[in-house]
Amino acid sequence: xxxxxITVTSGKGGVGKTTAIASLGIAxxxxxxxxxxxxGDIGLRNLDVIMGLENRIVYDIVDVVEGRCRxxxxxxxxxxxxxxxxxxxxxxxxxxxxxxxxxxxLGDELRPEVDWVLIDSPAGIERGFKNSIAAADRVLVLTNPxxxxxxxxxxxxxxxxxxEKGSPELIINRVNYEMVQNGEMxxxxxxxxxxxxxxxxxxxxxxxxxxxxxxxxPVSLDNDSRAGQAFRNIAMRLxxxxxxxxxxxxxxxxxxxxxxxxxxx
Amino acid sequence: xxxxxxxQIKGLRDGILITLGSGEWDYIQxxxxxxxxxxxxxxxxxxxxxxxxxxxxxxANMTALRDKLSxxxxxxxxxxxxxxxxxxxxxxxxxxTRISMQRPNEGxxxxxxxxxxxxxxSALWVEKTLRSGERVKYAGNIIVMGDVNPGAEIMAGGNILxxxxxxxxxxxxxxxxxxxxxxxxxxxICALTMTPSRLQIASEIKNPTDHEKFQKAVKVxxxxxxxxxxxxxxx
Lengths: 265, 235
Ligand SMILES: Nc1ncnc2c1ncn2[C@@H]1O[C@H](COP(=O)(O)OP(=O)(O)O)[C@@H](O)[C@H]1O
Ligand SMILES: [Mg+2]
Description:
The structure holds 2 protein chains of 2 kinds.
Chain A: E1 4-9, H1 17-30, E2 35-39, H2 47-50, H3 61-65, H4 71-74, E3 76-77, E4 84-87, H5 100-110, E5 116-120, H6 127-134, E6 138-143, H7 147-162, E7 169-175, H8 177-181, H9 188-195, E8 198-204, H10 207-214, H11 226-238, H12 254-261
Parallel strand pairs in A: 1-5, 1-6, 2-4, 2-5, 6-7, 7-8
Antiparallel strand pairs in A: 3-4
Helix pairs in contact in A: 1-11, 5-6
Chain B: E1 7-12, E2 15-20, H1 25-38, H2 40-43, E3 47-51, H3 59-71, E4 75-80, H4 84-92, H5 109-114, E5 123-126, E6 135-138, E7 141-144, E8 153-156, E9 160-166, E10 169-172, E11 189-194, E12 198-201, E13 204-206, E14 218-223, E15 226-231
Parallel strand pairs in B: 2-3, 3-4, 5-7, 6-8, 7-9, 8-10, 9-11, 10-12
Antiparallel strand pairs in B: 1-2, 11-14, 12-13, 14-15
Bound molecules: adenosine-5'-diphosphate (ADP) and magnesium ion.
Adenosine-5'-diphosphate is lined by residues 10, 13-19, 173-174, 203, 205-206, 209-210, 213, 227 of chain A.
């Protein structure tokens, strides 16, 4: 095996990076791929919480890098889906506990173990960001359809280009179809017009994301969630499959419409 | 040549200047780090300016160098070079490309003078989209083949020509060292769509409103001290 190393990053915080990593991890593993999710947000770890694996942490990424444990000891197995692992961040250290070359070494160690390494990154463009992209083969820039988030995404793309990381791909998260229709939110086209990079996914705003997060159940495990579906589609595109973009207009599920027609609710 | 003259170290008022001699880049770089590692205590936490002479450095070279330095807690803030490629690279990475010699008796003033580069019709060629946070500064003309996004900045001693959409801030005809002022009132700015967030020629400044932006190719210059827009290349 020689894993592809993918980093999700954004510049701005709170746009959905951690949500994306957890969901893509589950979705890729459900496709039969072997995946390790790495929490690169040292000092503010929360990928473990979103994945519902918090109570199983013994060792973390800094322990691996500083040689206090072997790599496999820090890989927590997610029992819900075969082939899915998490390497948690250290909570009591800061970003300077790791360097870009540590991350490259870690990436090289992980490559033979799995098919995919998914790296979550902290907000910002400093050390933690540099660490998280150091080993990446492919970078996914995630943004919200909101001017400040898009501006930060542009900044990050500029840095990635300057560092010759190859052109990143774009995920637009939290798109509210109705607000776009009413001209209250940037559309996918508006965002692409500025960022001008390849689009790999559009994820709708979806309450089930929050519900899922609170239960430690990444949203892509929820078959009824539209956001979950969008993340499953991105996972398939990562593996090279052509998947049409979801129609965000069909907002409610079939049964909702049906029950309304039948005079229910 | 003795290796000592390939890596020359001087103190500046607020940091350190290291001048590198010519030779194979990997070798010179290795020498640099030998010198640094021998006196790590002296270098740790320092602000470093690097004069790389005629070495032509690509982004990959310079980021590798910067990362190695930052692992030693040395922050690289400026790269000075005679190579236009290197200057371009440094600017893309947001590093300063000129340093003012702080002490008169330090280094030969003539050498510092020589670095007061471009005169006449030299142009800096930038073949990419400038994104938020990126800044290009050059004492001559600047040509951008790509868009200039909001949050990006171009500062030229001469003219600015954008073969793309201009949505960031542009300063033409300014003193690129002092930055926000200038004398060159003949400077002009051209773009395929003239929609800058901020416009400056010499010392005239404008933040165009939406009505003052043009979704077409326009040339902006100063006429009697006022901004004047005309269709670009329609004479
Ligand atoms: N598609 C979505 N729909 C609704 N809420 C979302 C969506 N994506 C993320 N969120 C919410 O946004 C917040 C921030 O998400 P998180 O993944 O922690 O962001 P980041 O890791 O970028 O800081 C969380 O409360 C999460 O539930
Ligand atoms: Mg996060």
